[in-house]
Structure formats: structure tokens, C-alpha cells
Amino acid sequence: MSNIKKVLVVGGGIGGQSVAIGLKKAGFAVDVVEILSEFNVYGVGIIQQANALRALDAIGVADEVMRRGSPYGKVKLCLPHGVQIGEAGTPPIGRFPSHNGISRRILHDVLFEEAQKIGLKYRMGVTVESIDNHPDIANVTFTDGTTDSYDIVIAADGVYSKVRKLIFGEFKPNYVGLSVWRYPFKRPAGLDTGYIFFNKKHKIGVIPMTVESCYIFLNSAEGDNPMIPEDQLVEKLKGYMSAYPVPVVQELIPQVTDAKLVNYRALETLKMPAPWYKNRVVVLGDAAHTTIPQLGSGAALAIEDAVVLIEELQKEGEVEAIFERYMKRRYERCMMVVDVSETLGAWELLEYNDQPLPEGANMGMLMGKTGMALTAPI
Ligand SMILES: Cc1cc2nc3c(=O)[nH]c(=O)nc-3n(C[C@H](O)[C@H](O)[C@H](O)COP(=O)(O)OP(=O)(O)OC[C@H]3O[C@@H](n4cnc5c(N)ncnc54)[C@H](O)[C@@H]3O)c2cc1C
Question: Given the DSSP bridges, would you call strands 174-186 and 70-72 parallel, antiparallel or unpaired?
């Protein structure tokens, strides 16, 4: 084992909790700081592909996540009336199904409960003020005025990472011209798997979350200024949904009533150039690679980052060699997901703007090929 013993994790999201849980179980002393004073995870769902479940299994929570979520097979790709034109998704890996839909809140709860069970303490409402990042130690000053020293600091503080900015400088996310709308629903009786319906102007996914609930995502192009006033959210979303005659969408439309439940956001990507480490600080998850959700795989990457880092930290070696091995195992795979997602997004944008697609462009095929690639061991 390396001589790393004491670790600070900055950020208590999916990646931060995953790495903190795994390291604590492996015997490291772990502190977690989370900038929010209270978690406020929104109530729509998240898709976990088989590779995400495999990674969650490595930190001991996959079974609970599947028990409290909704495992399903491949996603059916359909025309707006419901005629199926293909299917997509990561093939099953061992006992893990192609997909598990789950509420983000429930996923967060599973991780948080596991963290509490093993004695991890989170310092809520606190973050790093500064990091004195030496080759042999990181001396950290926190926003509550306290200080401490760590063998390593793991930046898991998301797309707008403060740690990344402090140590590596400014990298700005890139708006891709697309937006996503999400809304939670009571699950319709016939929803047997995940569905995506394609229209010329947008696409809608209907995804199981639990036995009783599901959510939709709807991708649209909102132009250069994607801000939409709250009082227009409900009507605009209902208008978009009405372009899908398929009964499973039609029966959800009357349930869209509360603007506060419409989770609307413009989509951004960010690719931090290698290396994702410097001296004693290392970056993971969205802080290093933010992908648009066209493959539903951003969180999967964050959890896989965590698993690989945990494995490498338990092996022999100097910190730089450990971080380099982590990079080597992660960089290409993460870039593949970000790049393919960007390509799928660019094709969608062309379609929504009535532009021709490049020759040979085939979304279903690209999604299938990438899903297959993600079954490779990490
Ligand atoms: C619309 C949309 C849909 C998506 N759907 C899917 C999907 O279906 N499947 C999938 O796998 N992925 C999906 N993703 C991607 C996924 O949500 C992210 O990749 C994942 O949340 C990244 O986890 P993270 O822990 O790296 O970052 P985050 O989830 O952003 O967590 C960062 C944490 O750090 C905290 N924080 C921020 N700043 C600081 C600070 N300075 N100090 C301390 N704490 C801080 C935040 O409060 C937060 O708790 C989707 C993303 C979007 C935008």
C-alpha cells in the first residue's frame, strides 16, 4: 500500500460520496466537505447503465440501488406515434441489467446512508478557502477558518469546481445549444422499460424510477439565450409533449401542473485537459469531464473514476505514479463518452434546426456501439 493515509474529499455528490465510501472501507482516514448546508437533490430520475451498477457494486451499494430503483432492459427507440425503430443501451454485464432507473434523491440517500453506516462524517456548509499544494502534502484552509493537512485532496465538486480553479486555473463549460426538461410522474401501468420518442424538433424519454414513479426528459433547442421564465415552463413543456401522439406521453400531459417540478436546464460540456492531478490534488467526476446526458453516463463515469482511484490508492507507489495510473485508466474512456455525447447532441441540433445530418449519421448505431464499449472492464 502507498503511504497515503489521510484524504480530503471536496464535494458530496455522486462521485464524492462514492470515492469517500470506498476509501473509508479500504481503511483510509477520510474527511468530506460539502458546500451546501443541507442536500437538496431534485426529485427527477437518473439512468444507471450496467457499467454504473458494476461500479456501485465495487463500493457495496449496487443491490440496494437496484432494490430501491427500477431495473429494466434496453431502451426502445420509437417514432412519435410509438412505432419502434430500434433499441439502445449498454448490454447487461453479469448480473447487472442494461439499466436501472432511480430517483436522484433515492440514489443520494443510498450513498448517504452507507456513508453514515461506516462512520463517514460530512462537514456541511463548508468548503476549501485555499490549498497550499506541495509535492509531499496539501495544507488546506477551510471557509470556517479551520485548517488541516492531507496526504491528498480529491476534487469532486462538480462542473464549476472551485478546487480545479484554485489549482489548475479557469476552464469554462461550453453550452452546446440544447436544453433539457425533466418532470417526475406517477408511473403509467404499461411502462415496461425505458422509451425514447424522436420528433423532428425534440425528443422525449420516458424512464421508470421506482415501481410507482417515472420521469420524462425532453431535449429541445432553445437558441442562443436558453433562459426561460418560470411562469412559462409548464405551458411550454406541455406544448412540446403534445407533439407525441403515443398514449404513454399523452396520458402524462395533464399531470404537468407545477412549475417548481419542471427541472429545466441548458446543457454544457467541459473537458479538463490531462493531467487531472498536480502534486497532492486530483480531480474526478464532472469536475474533470462534464458530459451532456445523451448517453446517460456522466454519473457512471464519476463512480467509475472513484472505483479506479480507490483501487490505485491501495497499490504501491509514489503519489504521482498512482495518479498517472488513474489517468491512464480513465482518460480515454471518459473522453469517448463526452465526445460521443457531443456528436449525438450536434446531430440533434442539426435536426431540430432543419439542417441535414452528415452522411452516415446514425444515432441508434452510435449509441449501441458506445454502450457495448462501456461493458469493457475499467
Ligand atoms: C440533465 C442531466 C441529466 C443527466 N442524466 C444522467 C443519467 O441519466 N445518468 C448518468 O449517469 N448521468 C447523468 N447526468 C450526469 C450526472 O448528473 C453527473 O455526471 C454527476 O452528477 C456528476 O457527479 P459529481 O459528483 O462529479 O458532481 P455533482 O453531482 O455536481 O456533485 C458535486 C457536489 O459538490 C458540491 N460542491 C460544489 N462546489 C463545492 C465546493 N466548492 N466545495 C464543496 N462542495 C462543493 C455540490 O453541492 C455537489 O454536492 C446527467 C446530467 C444532466 C445535466
Answer: unpaired
> Would you say residue 43 lies in a domain?
yes
Cα(138)–Cα(25) distance, rounded to whole angstroms?
23
Q: What SS3 class is residue 367? A: helix
Question: 304 alpha carbon to ligand 1 midpoint, in Å?
Answer: 14
Q: Do residues 205 and 196 lie in contact, with contact meaning Cβ atoms separated by under 8 Å? A: yes
Residue numbers in the chain where pLDDT is lower than 70: 1
| Residue 34 within any structural domain of the chain | yes
Which tens digits make up the pLDDT trace of 265-274? 999 999 999 9
Q: What is the CATH number of the domain that holds 317?
A: 3.50.50.60
Does the CA dihedral 204-266-44-104 come out positive or negative? positive
How many CA atoms are closer than 13 Å to the CA of 28, on its beta-carbon side?
A: 30
Angstrom CA distances, 191 to 97, 98, 186, 339, 354, stand at: 17, 16, 11, 31, 31
Q: Whose CA is nearest to atom 21 of ligand 1?
A: 299
* Calpha distance 74→90 (Å, rounded): 7
Beta carbons of 55 and 48 less than 8 angstroms apart: no
Q: Ligand 1, closest atom to CA 17?
A: 25
